[in-house]
């Protein structure tokens, strides 16, 4: 299992558009085969950084998932929405593997 971390630089005056974009991916990504952890919009601190995070089995499955996403009506509409509204200034993605597992039990004070 690998995790894809997408780092977005967004227009701070179009944060609401990014939230709409994120909500659409919240439906399309799981339907197309990735385990969506979530999309994260600015809250405190930087007003230009946002993230998307999901798990996928391997890079071969990632390529098949991306093809399904490109062919998904909601996915295509969301790509077009981002292009038209231009709220994403930059997008970078990196694939990482979990190195800290197994985790200990959470103990609440």
From TrEMBL:
Name of a matching Pfam family: NIPSNAP
Lineage: Bacteria, Pseudomonadati, Pseudomonadota, Alphaproteobacteria, Hyphomicrobiales
Entries under SUPFAM superfamilies matching the protein: Dimeric alpha+beta barrel
Superkingdom as given in the UniProt entry: Bacteria
InterPro entries named among the record's database cross-references: Dimeric_a/b-barrel, NIPSNAP
Residue span, NIPSNAP domain: 5-100
The name this protein goes by in its record: NIPSNAP family protein
């Amino acid at each position: 299992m690998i995790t894809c971390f997408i780092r977005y630089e967004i227009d701070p005056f179009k944060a609401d558009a990014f939230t709409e974009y994120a909500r659409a991916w919240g439906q399309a990504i799981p339907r197309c085969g990735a385990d969506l952890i979530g999309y994260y919009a600015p809250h405190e601190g930087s007003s230009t950084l946002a993230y998307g995070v999901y798990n996928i089995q391997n890079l071969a499955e990632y390529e098949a998932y991306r093809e399904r996403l490109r062919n998904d009506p909601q996915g295509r509409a969301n790509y077009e929405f981002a292009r038209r509204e231009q709220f994403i200034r930059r997008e970078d993605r990196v694939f990482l593997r979990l190195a800290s597992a197994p985790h200990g039990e959470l103990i609440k004070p």
